[in-house]
């Protein structure tokens, strides 16, 4: 009797497992059956709209872009982390999310454990700029100026704990200079005061910096990325200017709730990679200031881990406090 009971239980478990596997496969095959939502936190939604347009064409389902910029992206991340893990609610993730995971002590969700990576869509450098009328013509001159007058030079950012802030802090630490950070509520507000001469320099996201550089209102000194920026190939990297380990980029990726079935994540990844490699999408992404990517799940996972490690080191060394 015991043997018979054991066999029945074993068979029952196997049947349940087979039914679950069959269900997951069926869900993935039929996915998507309704519109998708892409939740956007801080920063532009341009890449969500560019890719969403193509995915809607491919899948015959609308892709709705919804902005939730409050609290530096915490609201956006939390809403996706706590949404149904069915692949229909996506997060346009950025560097702000990895920084928050290190900087904020009381997050309502865990970025690494409550969300799963899908693909790194694109990166974008920060351009180190000064007012066009500034006598400073290079990064070396900026560093020299800061060293001759400690505590006198200041730099703007789009807010405390943002990637632009960390770029300035990273330069401060590596160059051994004493400079003052002035946080603003947005990159636009910081640029306005930079144009007005109220601040000395700023790391500005490339899409925001380009119009002012092209109109000769701002002077570009270097880019924050490890490689030169394709839109401004003549501009050196900070690393080339004497700080070889300097590297910080803005980025856009896609995350979904952690318990989303693996086969749905794979289907989403395949579609986003396909879209990001289309010539039309790449042209639009570059025009918006991005460097198109389109990575595997594993590559994006490793990228996020590296980004968190880099942010953690800068935050700890600079004793940066939560906003």
UniProtKB/TrEMBL annotation:
The keyword rRNA-binding does not apply. InterPro entries: BUG (IPR005064), Bug_dom1 (IPR042100). CDD domains: PBP2_Bug27 (cd13578). Keywords: Receptor. Gene3D superfamilies: Bordetella uptake gene, domain 1 (3.40.190.150), Periplasmic binding protein-like II (3.40.190.10). It comes from the Bacteria. PANTHER family: BLR1237 PROTEIN, TRICARBOXYLATE-BINDING PROTEIN. Belongs to the UPF0065 (bug) family. This is Tripartite-type tricarboxylate transporter, receptor component TctC. The lineage of its organism: Bacteria, Pseudomonadati, Pseudomonadota, Betaproteobacteria, Burkholderiales.
């Amino acid at each position: 009797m015991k043997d018979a009971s054991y066999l029945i239980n074993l068979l029952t478990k196997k049947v349940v497992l087979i039914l679950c596997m069959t269900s997951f496969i069926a869900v993935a095959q039929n996915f998507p059956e309704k519109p998708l939502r892409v939740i956007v936190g801080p920063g532009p939604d341009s890449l969500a709209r560019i890719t969403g347009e193509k995915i809607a064409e491919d899948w015959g389902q609308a892709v709705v872009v919804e902005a939730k910029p409050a609290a530096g992206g915490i609201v956006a991340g939390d809403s996706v982390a706590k949404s149904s893990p069915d692949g229909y609610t996506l997060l346009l993730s950025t560097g702000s999310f990895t920084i928050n995971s290190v900087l904020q002590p009381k997050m309502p969700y865990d970025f690494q454990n409550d969300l799963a990576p899908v693909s790194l869509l694109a990166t974008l450098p920060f351009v180190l700029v000064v007012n066009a009328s500034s006598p400073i013509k290079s990064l070396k001159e900026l560093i020299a100026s800061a060293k001759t007058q400690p505590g006198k030079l200041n730099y703007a950012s789009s807010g405390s704990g943002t990637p632009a802030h960390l770029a300035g802090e990273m330069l401060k630490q590596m160059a051994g200079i004493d400079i003052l950070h002035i946080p603003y509520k947005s990159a636009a507000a910081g640029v306005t005061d930079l144009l007005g001469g109220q601040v000395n320099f700023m790391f500005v996201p490339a899409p925001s910096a380009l119009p002012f550089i092209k109109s000769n209102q701002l002077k570009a000194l270097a880019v924050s990325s490890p490689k030169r920026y394709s839109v401004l190939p003549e501009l050196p990297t900070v690393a080339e200017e004497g700080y070889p380990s300097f590297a910080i980029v803005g980025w856009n990726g896609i995350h979904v709730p952690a318990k989303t079935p693996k086969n749905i994540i794979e289907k989403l990844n395949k579609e986003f990679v396909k879209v990001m490699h289309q010539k039309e999408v790449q042209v639009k992404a570059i025009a918006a200031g991005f460097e198109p990517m389109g990575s595997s799940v594993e590559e994006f996972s490793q990228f996020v881990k590296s980004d968190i490690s880099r942010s953690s080191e800068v935050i700890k060394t600079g004793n940066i406090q939560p906003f």
